[in-house]
Amino acid sequence: MNSWNHDRQTANVLSSDNDGDGVVSPGDVVEYSITVANVGSAAASGVSLTDSIPALTTIVPGSVTTSQGTVVSEDPVGVDFGAMAGGGTATVTFRVVLDDPFPLGITEVANQGTVTSDQLPPVLTDDPDAAGDTDPTVTPVVAAPDLVVSRI
Ligand SMILES: [Ca+2]
Ligand SMILES: [Ca+2]
Question: Is residue 49 part of a domain?
Fold first, then answer.
């Protein structure tokens, strides 16, 4: 095969634990980090990423960064990497704030981007923590009930 190959992974971390409970919960900030690698030997051109912000979250303005190329939009996240040499790697990060309050019964947010290039059909990003090749990156959300009990 003479074309390039993608490796693209999306990881997520708790960036700002605004309620201090140690888990991802409503109102917290989650940072996503997407690595796009050309693991082939041929150069790729026109490489770009589009990634819709997860439902029930809001992009942190100005938080989209890329190690290569240009950030073209924030919501959805859009990055033009340009050309990527064989063995080249680029990393995109962005942060979102989880809605607060969070709807009852929703226990996760999911994110998945799409990488396109002039050489290959679009490919979805993959969660490295899940076994498949094109898993959405799922972040568990703990929406603890906020009960106040008064006793008189
Ligand atoms: Ca929290
Ligand atoms: Ca996976």
Answer: yes
Domain encompassing residue 31:
6-140
What is the rounded average pLDDT of the residues 129-144? 89
CATH of the domain at 132: 2.60.40.740
Residue 30 Cα to ligand 1 middle (Å): 10
Please give the model's pTM, rounded to 2 decimal places.
Answer: 0.89
Gap from CA of 148 to ligand 2 centroid (Å): 41
Residue 26 domain-assigned (yes or no)? yes
- The answer to the question of residue 151 being in a domain is no
Span from the CA of 2 to the centroid of ligand 2 (angstroms): 25
Over residues 67-105, the pLDDT tens digits come to 999 999 999 999 999 999 999 999 999 999 999 999 988
Which ligand number lies closest to the CA of residue 138? 2
Tell me the CA–centroid distance for residue 32 and ligand 1, in Å. Answer: 16
| C-alpha torsion angle, residues 2, 121, 76, 37 (rounded to 10) | -20
